[in-house]
Design goal:
Elements lengths: L19 E3 L2 E3 L6 E5 L2 E4 L13 H11 L4 H6 L6 H15 L9 E5 L5 H7 L4 E6 L2 H14 L3 E6 L11 E7 L8 H11 E10 L3 H8 L18 H10 L2 E8 L9 H6 L2 H18 L5 E8 L1 H7 L1
Parallel strand pairs: 4-7, 5-6, 5-8, 6-7, 8-9
Antiparallel strand pairs: 1-2, 2-3, 3-4, 9-11, 10-11
């Protein structure tokens, strides 16, 4: 299940205790809790029987259930493959910016939280990272595995809650999330866990609480509540930076104006034609040069301070 020198999985309730095989399950040596392994996928969720203060509450169960049965499965597995050129560029530009201020990825262990159908895991693996990826939805993790098999990249996959990451402190070099924390009722709880397990850096890429977002919402271009039922928790950059700084990191951030529908429509196809695509690129550069600082997308890179790095080694 875990190989290539990747860190061992721990118990969600005792993350510094490595799980051991117990028949067809994994067991915690501390609390003796057993966790199922479904078709090779570890299911590492702390349920109400184990911890009444952090049970999988109604909100989390609703999110997991929605993404277990998500529509458009083939699109989710394939994107941005086989999509219009503009859509591919938008996805690649977001992902490129999410890593361009991180340490070099080649050979680094990178944890992808809230991995969905594995688009980010594929992106990072193709840049030489050794990837672990998880989601609270088993259905999403299974789609990520199908993507892995279809497109030929490597990642260790498991089911987990970003507020209870089953890894020891400093277990990975980099913790990474893209469009995942905004599903949480308390995004900063997920931020604290990402910071806990990251030895070198954290990359957070989420909707921003910004003027551009308010305008998009007023125009009906941005949703207040997503189909999964969650209110979109747009992050405030200064508060997020303060939180990461208090956890021993040096954060830097930027906003970007970017709009696209989750599934590209006919307009995206029209804008992907050679002449139209050049015009769009020029407009995008001008718009972000003038107003990007108030944009709707937030990219936060936080590098661990040297004194804190040495304490995790």
């Amino acid at each position: 299940m875990m190989d290539r020198g990747l860190p061992a999985l721990g118990c969600p309730l005792h993350p510094d205790r490595h799980l051991a095989l117990a028949g067809d399950a994994l067991a915690c040596p501390e609390c003796r809790t057993e966790y199922a392994v479904n078709d090779g996928i570890p299911i590492l969720l702390a349920g109400p029987a184990h911890d009444t203060h952090d049970e999988l509450d109604h909100h989390k169960l609703g999110q997991a259930s929605y993404f277990d049965r998500a529509a458009g499965i083939e699109f989710e597995i394939n994107r941005p493959h086989d999509t219009p050129a503009l859509y591919r560029w938008l996805m690649e530009e977001k992902l490129r910016q999410s890593v361009d201020r991180l340490p070099p990825l080649a050979g680094k262990t990178v944890l992808v939280a809230c991995c969905g159908s594995g688009m980010e895991a594929e992106f990072l693996a193709r840049r030489g990272a050794r990837v672990l990826a998880f989601d609270i939805s088993e259905g999403a993790v299974r789609r990520a595995r199908t993507r892995q098999e279809r497109f030929g990249f490597s990642a260790a996959l498991f089911v987990a809650d970003v507020e209870r990451i089953p890894l020891a402190a400093g277990a990975v070099d980099i913790a990474y999330v893209h469009d995942g924390l905004h599903h949480l009722e308390q995004p900063l709880a997920g931020v604290a866990e990402l910071a806990r397990v990251a030895r070198l850096a954290v990359s957070i890429n989420e909707p921003a609480r910004a003027a551009g977002t308010r305008l998009a919402a007023a125009l009906g271009l941005a949703a207040h509540r997503e189909p999964a039922g969650n209110v979109v928790a747009r992050l405030e950059p200064e508060g997020l930076a303060f939180e990461l700084s208090s956890l021993g990191f040096d954060p830097s951030w930027r906003r970007r104006l970017m709009y696209y529908k989750h599934e590209p429509g006919s307009l995206m196809g029209l804008l992907s034609r050679p002449g139209a695509l050049d015009v769009y690129w020029g407009f995008d550069r001008i718009a972000n040069a003038l107003a990007g600082r108030w944009g709707n997308k937030l990219q936060m890179t936080a590098i661990k301070r040297r004194s804190n790095i040495s304490s995790t080694m």
